Amino acid sequence: MARYTVLIDGEAGAYGVVVPDMPGCTAMGDTIEAALLNATEAMRDWVEAMAAQGETIPAPRAPEALRRQAEVIEALAAGATLANVPLVRETGRPAKANLSIDAGILAAIDEQAARLKLTRSAFIELLAKRHLSDAA
């Protein structure tokens, strides 16, 4: 899974994320966490649009390389910060996975999934999507 370095700026209630390696790819959120979660979706959509046009998807550059770019230097000087965001591409194709989970945790997963009117698989996928963007 590729991880892209992003710039985060803003203030409480209005955070923005820019993906320097994906020109025009941006996201926003009320919190930093929401902005980063929205960035994972924006990156996925950006990559899908580029692939549909036959464009090459740029490889992520190392944070050190980005720190040498004038616009990144300027953004960091103005208070922006860097973070890593994974590019999680959905294939639309389900895959079976055999997992071993504590019986009590599995019961809690099933109860929460039922409350949300989701299948166990859909609930676990939702959790994974949310937490993959947290693993910066």
What topology does this entry show?
Blueprint: E1 3-11, E2 14-18, E3 26-29, H1 32-52, H2 63-66, H3 70-77, E4 81-86, H4 103-115, H5 120-132
Antiparallel strand pairs: 1-2, 1-4, 2-3
Helix pairs in contact: 4-5
Nutshell version of this structure?
This protein has 136 residues and is an alpha+beta fold. The protein is built from five helices and four strands; from the N terminus they run E-E-E-H-H-H-E-H-H.
Strand-pairing-aware structural class: alpha+beta
Q: Report the sheet with the most strands, covering strand number, pairing sense and barrel closure.
A: 4 strands, antiparallel
Low-pLDDT residue spans:
none
Give the helices and strands as they follow along the chain.
EEEHHHEHH
Chain oligomer state: single chain
Question: Strand order across the biggest sheet?
Answer: 3-2-1-4
Residue share in helices?
40-55%
Cα(first) to Cα(last) distance is 13 Å
Q: Judging by the overall fold, what is the CATH architecture of the largest domain? A: 2-Layer Sandwich
Total discrete domains: 2
- Count every helix, treating DSSP H or I runs of 4 or more residues as helices: 5
